[in-house]
Design brief:
The protein is of the alpha/beta class. It is built from 14 helices and 15 strands. It has two domains: 97 residues, 5' to 3' exonuclease, C-terminal subdomain (DNA polymerase, domain 1, Orthogonal Bundle), CATH 1.10.150.20; 235 residues, Rossmann fold.
């Protein structure tokens, strides 16, 4: 059993050697600027900046061996630990009390001891949120800038509505420079239905003036064969995002494997719990790594609806509550497509029209 030694006294400067949790000697440099003094915590109206270059070993109570265990379990950074639940971390560390202590240390570290902020401070922080253009001016106007980072955007629609086409185009658009609506980043594409087509990316890249070969190199592709594999890919994605400069994660579609593997009402509770965990995976990645997440969703036909639209999104309330923005795509006349915002914390319910051509998803 690992010996746990809690360091109760911190020095303002210099180096302090202590026996760590892993039975090893750890050098911990405590600089005065990083101390969580009462005066600093009570300081008001000063937006904080997260410290950079932090390793798991910088956390109080985490030594080399514990850090290695955390990384192997998918907790690659201090932010990963800070956003984890004690129940999740206890499966790695063996103790929920110890897990909670390390999580709180991580939360203090990334927030510099400040747990609350004013709405004005949050408003200023929200100005750092970036947007990825869809390549369609009407859709960008509908979304007030495009696809938002730190959020999950859900594309809902029946087959042929343009969900997959829009995902292909977003994988291209994110590579553009910021002055052209992109983020100079790469895309991670998780394909659950086998509908990703690199040939389509080539034609879209040419239309946008990009080198097709380079564009394909900047899309990291993974084929998910079942729901467990799908969740594993998202866990492993955390190691790629910062290393590869990924700015958007596309899951097409979110619900396919869950519907196939958990049929019938008797499996509904198990399916929804697992699906909820998967959506929380994606939400954490969006928040921690400042990335955009876009998922597509299928529709169900409700036979008991005689008036109005008999179609409804699959996944029920779990998906509805888990996604930040929800767009319903449907076919219109003369090959046009109509996008409607059906749920958003900041947008009104409104529509825009676009079309799909050989060059990609375009304005009418």
């Amino acid at each position: 059993m690992e010996d746990e030694v809690i360091v109760s006294k911190r020095r303002a400067s210099g180096t302090e050697k202590v026996s760590s949790i892993d039975g090893e000697t750890v050098e911990s440099e405590m600089e005065q600027s990083m101390e969580y003094t009462e005066e600093f915590i009570e300081e008001e109206h000063v937006p904080h900046e997260e410290p950079v270059g932090l390793d798991l070993e910088d956390l109080e109570g985490v030594g080399r061996v514990t850090a290695q265990k955390l990384r192997q379990a998918g907790y690659a950074s201090v932010k990963d630990v800070a956003y984890a639940s004690s129940h999740e971390l206890a499966t790695v560390l063996g103790s929920e009390e110890r897990a909670l202590s390390i999580i709180r240390a991580a939360q203090r570290l990334i927030s510099l001891g400040k747990l609350f902020m004013t709405a004005k401070e949050y408003y200023e922080e929200r100005k750092n949120v970036a947007y990825i253009s869809t390549g369609v001016r009407a859709l960008d106007d509908l979304l007030e800038g495009g696809i938002e980072t730190r959020a999950i955007t859900e594309l809902i629609g029946e087959f042929g509505a343009g969900k997959t086409q829009l995902c292909h185009q977003l994988a291209v658009m994110v590579q553009l420079p910021r002055d052209r609506g992109g983020l100079n980043g790469r895309a991670l594409y998780v394909d659950t239905e086998g509908t990703f087509r690199p040939e389509r990316v080539v034609s879209m890249a040419r239309y946008r003036g990009l080198d097709p070969e380079k564009t394909l190199e900047n899309i990291i592709y993974a084929r998910a064969y079942n729901s467990d594999h799908q969740m594993l890919l998202i866990d492993e994605a955390k190691h790629l995002i910062e290393e590869e400069g990924v700015k958007i994660i596309l899951v097409d579609s979110l619900i396919t494997h869950f519907r196939a593997e958990y049929p019938g009402r008797e499996n509904l509770a198990a399916r929804q719990q697992k699906l909820n965990k998967h959506i929380m995976q994606l939400a954490k990645i969006a928040a921690i790594y400042d990335a955009a997440v876009v998922v597509t969703n299928q529709v169900l036909a409700a036979p008991d609806v005689f008036f109005g639209n008999p179609l409804k999104p699959a996944g029920g309330n779990i998906v509805a509550h888990g996604c930040t923005y929800r767009l319903w795509l449907r076919k219109g006349k003369e090959g046009k497509r109509i996008a409607r915002i059906i749920d958003s914390p900041k947008h009104a319910e409104k529509e825009s029209v676009f079309t799909i051509s050989d060059e990609g998803v375009l304005d009418v």
